[in-house]
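Good morning C.,

I know you're traveling, so I'll keep this short. The sequence:
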Amino acid sequence: MGILSIAKVFVLAAIVATAALARGSNDGEEIVFLTLSLVYDSDLQEYRMDLTDKKVVPGRLRRNAIHGHGNPSGDFGELEYQILDENSNLVNQSFLPWPLERSVEFVNEEGRLQRADVHLDTAQVVLRLQLTPQTRRVVFDAKRGRAPRGENAQPLLVIDLDR
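The tokens, ready to paste straight into the viewer:
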């Protein structure tokens, strides 16, 4: 095979790759970005969560993109989210560290590293999720004593994905 033939193969491969990128190689896969606001109302002694933005874009999350952890284990509690299908069956479930509690490290007056816990009244979280054909809604709830429990306990937020 001559140099001219090899060059033609590389050019053809480049054209095919460019065409695949142009039409999108995601095969209809989508990612949803949810921007959430969590507020602690000290007068009512309760938490409120609102959806501030929802954006669905074509794409696929990388396999190593971890957005939460499977078991609650944080010192402050967790924010649980469940992904449900159209019949409210569980598709996936995960946890995020509690957004209103942060642990920060700083250098104190003696020049030593020190850790302090910071309690916030409001926080914003952006969560990205891979959408699957069966994904219909996402339910957020507080774990480890963050939200009132009882017969009529409601989740912090339910988002219908309108699919």
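Safe travels,
E.
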